Amino acid sequence: MKIYVLRLFHRAERDKRITTHCALVSRAFLTEQMYYCGNKDEKLEKNIEKVNKNFGSNFSVVFIKDWKSLIKNFDGLKIHLTMYGIPLLEKIDYIKSFNKVLIIVGSEKVPKEVYEMVDLNISITNQPHSEIAALAVFLDRIFEGKEFYTNFENAMLKIIPSEKGKIVKKQNY
Ligand SMILES: C[S@@+](CC[C@H](N)C(=O)[O-])C[C@H]1O[C@@H](n2cnc3c(N)ncnc32)[C@H](O)[C@@H]1O
User: Fold this and answer.
1) Is CATH 3.40.50.920 the classification given to domain 2-170?
2) Is 14 in the pocket of ligand 1 (CB under 6 A)?
3) Which tens digits make up the pLDDT trace of 108-137?
4) Is 8 touching ligand 1 by the criterion CB < 6 Å?
5) Are strands 120-123 and 33-38 parallel, antiparallel or unpaired?
């Protein structure tokens, strides 16, 4: 399954760490791309490029101006993550039957239109928490832990799991 993420309404100063973490989670948990709208943020894009350069993967962060047309024209299942939605476990088999999925997460208040434009509003518990946690739990459930053992292509650095300390191997690709 190919999963794309849309992070709504990034505010360059206020959200810089949270949006970066949304992108890091999206990359580590095997999505293809994260779109974001709001303020364009070169620093965010460069940070992720640097992580790719060191640790591999073709994941990318793409700024978009028109989030409505992205959602409207997406040719797969469109899911908005929200604490008001239907619990993921009730819809997981249906979601897994698609091969292309767009996951939308908010920052500040998400407009009502988003709730109406998507195919599913899905909750990761019906309690308020965070877009980073919601994304991670959603992706882990969908990929059933596959992300734990994925080796990214083009990695210059490979972490060797270790019980103590840090072991990092340099490699040529
Ligand atoms: C910090 S929350 C702010 C939500 C905002 N107050 C609202 O009412 O839309 C930011 C984002 O985290 C995600 N989120 C937070 N809690 C969630 C939950 N229980 N299930 C799924 N997504 C959640 C949603 O995508 C939400 O837009």
Assistant:
1) no
2) no
3) 899 999 999 999 999 999 999 999 999 999
4) no
5) unpaired
Q: How far does the centroid of ligand 1 lie from the alpha carbon of residue 8, in Å?
A: 11
Residue nearest to atom 10 of ligand 1 (CA): 107
79 within ligand 1 shell (Cβ under 6 A): no
Burial class of residue 17 (count of CB atoms within 10 Å of its CB; 0-12, 13-18, 19+): exposed
What are the tokens at 97? 């039957």
Residue tagged 């698609």 (tokens): 98
Give the predicted TM-score (pTM) of the model. Answer: 0.95
Radius of gyration of the chain (CA): 16
CB 6 near ligand 1, within 6 Å:
no
Q: In the chain, what are the domain boundaries?
A: 2-170
Residue to substitute in 36, 37, 80, 82 for testing ligand 1 pocket (most ligand atoms within 8 angstroms of CB): 82
Mean pLDDT value of segment 15-23: 95
Q: Is 17 helix (H, G, I), strand (E, B) or coil?
A: helix
